[in-house]
Structure formats: C-alpha cells, structure tokens
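Q: Convert this sequence to structure tokens.
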Amino acid sequence: RGRYGEGLFPVVAVGETGDALGYGREILKALAEGGCPGFYFAHASGESFKRPDAYGKHELLAALASAKSAGRRAVVLAVGGGVNGNAMGMIAALTGADFIEVPTTLMHYNDATTSAKKAFSLVVNGEILSKNILGTFYLPQLVFCIS
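A:
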C-alpha cells in the first residue's frame, strides 16, 4: 500500500497545543496522500493528564485492535511534547505497536533521544500523587526532530 509499506496503520497522537497548531493533522494527511490512511488521536495536554484513563481511550484501543486483527502493522507517532511521547510510548509498548516520536519542544527533543522510560502517573482529582508509577522501557524506532 503506497510508499510507506504494505499494511501499515499509523496512529498519529497529539496534545491539544499541537492539535491547535495542526502538527498531527498535517502528518496524517501526508501519510494518507502517500496511500497510508490511519487514525488521529487528539488528547488533553499536561502532566496531570499523564494517566491511563486519559490515553487508554476506547476509540484508540479499538482502532489499534482492529488494525492488528486485520493483519496491519500498527505504528504510533507521538507528535508534540514530552507527556505525549511518554504516555503514547506506554500505549505502544502495551499494544506491541512500533513507536515513532516527533518532538516539537526542546525538552521532548532531549527526552525522546536519551530516555527509554515511558510511563503513566497516579493522578487523583488533577493532583499528581506519584509521578511515573506505572511504566516500562520502550525505545522509539525513530525520532524525527522538527523545528
């Protein structure tokens, strides 16, 4: 299928700031134009949203499960800041998807290229009780830095 590979299913994930700037939609559009349509996942941004219920949304997990059931190769592209990369890396690890980070902040440039830690925090009523309490080590297959 297209130039990106047979059976590839991209999931482009972006926080609300990157979404407002159009970063994720531009990437998904380019992939679709190259013959590789996928799934767009926009979500709230910030450390207090780095929790399983904010990222483990039914529509996201259903899209990944459907793609895998159809024999497609799932690739999670985390576009934006460090929280997005951290949490979507955790989703990629838990679902066995390939993982690509597209950092758009200086902190995420560093995090994406030097840290394999991907995790969720324990957050109750918007208060972080324990940071990065549930996690794994999962390296991205590619880090694509844009500026």
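The beta strands are 8-15, 39-43, 73-80, 98-103, 117-124, 127-137, 142-143.
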